Amino acid sequence: MKTIGVLALQGAVSEHLSQIEGLGHKAVPITLPAQLATIDGLILPGGESTAMHILLGTFDFIPALITFIEEGHGVFGTCAGMVLLSQLNEGAFLEAEVVRNGFGRQIDSFEYHLPVELETGTISFPTVFIRAPFYASVGNAVKVLARIDTKIVAVETPTLLATAFHPELTEDTRLLAYFIDKKVTASQS
């Protein structure tokens, strides 16, 4: 059993916590930087990326997050969390050109069955896009897992996973299980 934290400053927190527990792991809402020392992996949830970035600065989370990633811990960024991962440490962890709200406004939100190419095989994943970003391009160390047309909507590195969509708003936990197995457990082997 792993302990997975969900950054709980703003955004879709409770849905992530429920899915983590549903997979048999301990779920912890993270509200203080010191709590990062008590978890095995972290989810940066969807929400509003500008508000989250301001709150990260206000609560002095940024240095702790950088250290957490540098130590090799797994981090999963969804929607606004995907934006944050590409901005942390000036893109040193996840080199990508992000387009915020790249699929339009709230009214343009949509659901879509997306083929996602994981290390374990390609899955058709139900996705929810809400004012979603996308990556226009990524660095050589970043593996693209899914696109909609030319828009990159899911990527990974050895310890990071990022999606433009909200997997926590579906009942499908395969992507979360993949994160815990391949980014959290594998990083501690």
UniProtKB/TrEMBL annotation:
GO terms (BP aspect): pyridoxal phosphate biosynthetic process; pyridoxine metabolic process
EC number: 3.5.1.2
Catalyzed chemical reaction(s): L-glutamine + H2O = L-glutamate + NH4(+)
Keywords annotated in UniProt: Glutamine amidotransferase, Hydrolase, Lyase, Pyridoxal phosphate, Transferase
One Pfam family cited in the UniProt record for this chain: SNO
Gene Ontology cellular component terms for the protein in this record: cytosol; glutaminase complex
InterPro entries: Class_I_gatase-like, PdxT/SNO, PdxT/SNO_CS
Active-site residues annotated for this sequence: C79 (nucleophile), H166 (charge relay system), E168 (charge relay system)
Family listed: Belongs to the glutaminase PdxT/SNO family.
Protein name: glutaminase
The organism's taxonomic lineage, starting at the top: Bacteria, Bacillati, Bacillota, Bacilli, Bacillales
